[in-house]
Design goal:
The complex is a heterodimer of chains A (114) and B (219). With 114 residues, chain A is of the alpha/beta class. Chain A has five helices and five strands; from the N terminus they run H-E-E-H-E-H-E-H-E-H. In chain A, strand 2, helix 2 and strand 3 form a beta-alpha-beta unit. Chain A is globular and about 40 Å long. Classes of the chains: A alpha/beta (114), B alpha/beta (219).
Chain lengths: 114, 219
């Protein structure tokens, strides 16, 4: 499913401006330990986390992740958003929990498994 | 940071004991140590280790050999993930004159395959002094990463940006600059009253015994 459609249907608030290309999201990943995400997340996934440290962007870049959703109303600092914008990583925020967001994402990506 | 820049910054700001605690590596400790000692500073060899739970722990050693031996052991416990210089920087170790001695290929900004407790044990097995780093920070501090300070760690000294919480009043607070740039050297400092700059003396000072003491400046 393309990112813009997912964002819409999941009710996410964009924190970065769209960069023009419309990436396809293949999977989701939930994790707050950066070293673990670096080792385990797959490319082109939407990462759901409550970790707001600026290394989030570095990890998203290296792991080839399409976007990061900050759950539970967590907001990264302006410098993190700026770094993400420059790196082409889409950031989003949601007041909902990682559990809720992951459930929603899974239903959207795999309606046949619901 | 260049060894000379660190040493000059310390001297100009009236800091007379420094330690180098690079992330998961001791590649620069001997070079900086020699520069520091040549300039009349007291020096401790160190590292900042990152546990599996992403807790940062400072490690201090009296001798370069112990620090380097610990570094060699933990190197094998770092994942075999290559550095990405564009994202994380070059990871270079330099000589006193700035020539590059070594470029580390493994990503150092990573977690060791050691729990918090195992990390403390590892440091002590090389006669080092473990000090949990910036325990009150939102990321990479033991309180944020583990929720509570684990019991029976044997830690007396802890590094904290702010005052210790009531539950940790029996511990001794230290605060350091965590300088990543020479400008930051000495911005935050701790005053130690010691017979000499050694791990054993730090431990006595932590207990406030025999006239030794520890005091975070600005308190």
């Amino acid at each position: 499913m393309i990112l813009t459609e997912l964002v819409d249907r999941m009710g996410l608030t964009p924190l970065t401006e769209s960069i023009g290309s419309v990436p396809e999201i293949e999977a989701g990943y939930v994790g707050d330990l950066l070293s673990h995400v670096l080792a385990s997340a797959t490319p082109n996934c939407l990462w759901i986390t409550i970790q707001r440290h600026e290394n989030v962007v570095a990890v998203a870049q290296v792991a080839g992740l399409t976007g990061v959703v900050f759950a539970e109303g967590v907001r990264p600092e302006a410098k993190v958003v700026e770094r993400a914008q420059n790196a082409g990583i889409a950031l989003f925020s949601s007041p909902d929990s990682s559990f809720e967001l992951a459930g929603r994402l899974h239903r959207l990506l795999h309606p046949e498994r619901s | 940071m260049s060894p000379q820049a660190i040493v000059q910054a310390a001297i100009s700001r009236g800091v007379d004991l420094i330690a180098v605690t690079d992330h998961n590596t001791a590649a620069m400790v001997e070079v900086v140590g020699r520069a520091a000692q040549a300039a009349g500073l007291h020096f401790l060899y160190g590292m900042e280790l990152q546990t599996r739970e992403e807790v940062h722990v400072l490690a201090y050693f009296d001798r370069a050999a112990n620090c380097l031996a610990c570094a060699e052991t933990i190197y094998s416990l770092l994942p075999d993930m290559p550095n990405v210089p564009d994202v994380f920087g070059d990871q270079v170790a330099v000589a006193l004159d700035g020539t590059i001695l070594h470029t580390e290929p493994k990503l150092l900004v990573n977690s060791l395959d050691l729990s918090f407790g195992e990390t403390l044990d590892c440091i002590r097995s090389f006669d080092g002094l473990p000090v949990p780093a910036h325990i009150d920070r939102a990321s990479y501090g033991v309180l944020a990463q583990l929720g509570v300070f684990p019991e029976n760690t044997g830690c007396q000294l802890v590094e904290s940006d702010g005052a210790l919480p009531p539950s940790l009043q029996n511990m001794t607070r230290v605060c350091f600059s965590d300088a990543h740039h020479p400008d930051q050297v000495g911005e935050v400092r701790t005053e130690f009253r010691l017979e000499e700059a050694s791990v054993a003396e730090l431990q006595v000072a932590a207990r406030g015994e025999a006239g030794r003491s520890v005091k975070c400046m600005g308190e």
